[in-house]
Amino acid sequence: MVRTILSALILMSGLLTGVCYADNHGSAQPSWSQLSNEQRQVLSPLGKEWDNLRPWQREKMLDIARDYPKMSHEQQDRVQRRLTHWSRMTPYEREKARERYQKFKALPPEKKQELKQKWRQYQSLPKSERDAMQQNDPDTFDALDE
Amino acid sequence: MRDENDIAKAIVGLLEENTSRLDNKITNRLAVARQQAVSAHAKRQQQNQGRNFGFLHSLVHYVHNHIGASSAVLACSAVLIAFMVTQQLNNKEAEGQGDAFLLASELPPEAFADQEFHAWLEQSSQP
User: Fold this and answer.
1) Mutate to test the interface with B, among A103, A140, A146 (most CBs of B within 10 A)
2) Across the interface, which of B89, B99, B123 has its CB nearest the CB of A22?
3) What residues in B contact A144, CB-CB < 8 Å?
4) Which of A93, A49, A109, A112 is nearest to B99 (CA)?
5) Do A100 and B122 touch (CB under 8 A)?
6) CB A116 within 8 Å of CB B121
7) Residue B90, exposed/middle/buried by CB under 10 A (0-12, 13-18, 19+)?
8) Fewer beta carbons under 10 A from the terminal one: N or C of chain B?
9) What is the pLDDT of residues B13-46, one digit of tens each?
């Protein structure tokens, strides 16, 4: 009887300790000098602005650094190139990007390829042409902003 | 003080003297009644002591009497906490992985975030 209660209490305290650890781990706000060599290497594009990042931004970036070793060299190069731009995006933009990335992941390869081509095509459009499109059909553009 | 003691001793002496003259039947009935009174007093004291322990005592008492139900409640609590912890850790993992792999995706993050691009896509897909 006493043994059962004791075991249950030990189990619960262990689990609660885990929760506390997870919370503390999540709210870590290390400065640039406190990062490990590996983390600094991955996050090097953000070196100058790291100490100005908000705690939740640092947390997200540390998550990225954690997953970095699991990637191929090609993916790692992309991450390095895109990290600075990503850190400067607004929370709203990042949230939108996450939502659309989830949809993109679920697409079949040929659709992904098509979307990549469309992106290249869109980027090659002169700015004047893009602005003209927005003026000609403002409803479509406004609807996506909501 | 001394007077009181003397009076008490005199009362005890008189009672003992009179008791010794009592019938055996009556003496036995008195002994039984005394025993009952002592038991009732001991029980009352135990209950009062129990009340002093309050909630903790009640809990221990309840657990002791309902060991099966208590073990089930404890097991359920442990499972619930474990589930919550797992969910929290999984969400965190998925979110972090999402960001890392989003950055490594074939399309750059700005392609996903660019509202104009998606509006253009929608516009260009219309017949």
Assistant:
1) A140
2) B89
3) 115, 118-119, 122
4) A93
5) no
6) no
7) exposed
8) C
9) 888 888 778 888 888 888 899 999 989 988 888 8
Q: Cβ(B113)–Cβ(A94) under 8 Å?
A: yes
ipTM, interface predicted TM-score of the complex? 0.70
Give this prediction's pTM: 0.52
Task: Say whether residue B109 is in contact with chain A using an 8 A CB cutoff.
Answer: yes
Q: What is the DSSP letter of A71?
A: S
- Could you tell me which chain B residue has the CA closest to the CA of A58? B96
Can you tell me the distance from the alpha carbon of A85 to that of A64, in angstroms, rounded to the nearest whole number? 14
Per residue in B44-55, pLDDT tens?
A: 888 777 666 666
Look up residue B54 and give its two tokens. 């309050």
Residue B105 has phi, psi (to 5 degrees) of -65, 165
CA angle (A142, B111, A128) in 5-degree steps: 60
Contact A123, B116 (CB under 8 A): no
Closest-CA distance of chain A to residue B79, Å: 9
Interchain CB contact of B81 with A (< 8 Å): yes
Residue of chain B nearest A92, judged by CA positions: B113
- Name which of A12, A75, A98 is nearest B78 (Cβ-Cβ): A12
pLDDT tens-digit map of A91-106 = 899 999 999 999 999 9
Residue A58 and residue A29 in contact, taking contact as beta carbons nearer than 8 Å: yes
Encoding tokens for residue B21?
């003259």
